[in-house]
Predict the 3D structure of the following.
Amino acid sequence: MGNPKGKISKAQSAFNWALKHYYEEKGYGFQTWLAEKVGVSTRHINDLVHNKKGASIELMEAIADALETTVEDMLALGRKLSEPLPEPKPSPPPPSSEAEEKGFPVHTLKRAKFFWQKAHEVVFQGEEVTMIPFEGLIEGQDLLEAYVRQELTDEEVWERMVKILEEWKEKLERDVKSLEEG
């Protein structure tokens, strides 16, 4: 099965990426179920999922059938999943001068909350989203305390706030998509 000398073709690798996606989606027991369904060992399925081996055309077809899809769709999904992620765009600089103008001293709760509001505006870019309460997030609370204890600079707290909100935005988008599909 697969290519000689353990080399995996781009198509086999793409197929494996799609298989890994199914594995992550289905969870525990998937590899055993699939191995039994297509007549190979669980170890062989594990090697495919971890891109250690490439499947033969026949095995690809059997796996696609078991997953109620096509080899072509699996390859397309795998190619999409294996594309390198775009470089993250750098966060804009923290609004330190604006905070100074408003009279919010460094390492104070007022300044941290102002940064949170500004980070929310930057990440959600005017979308109508109820502001996520800073104190309501464990990460936010820990971040706030570290900033007030002077363990973080304006730049560090700003960068982390933007990252937390970007992750929340991605989660919200996934949840909305899931609701729309379901």
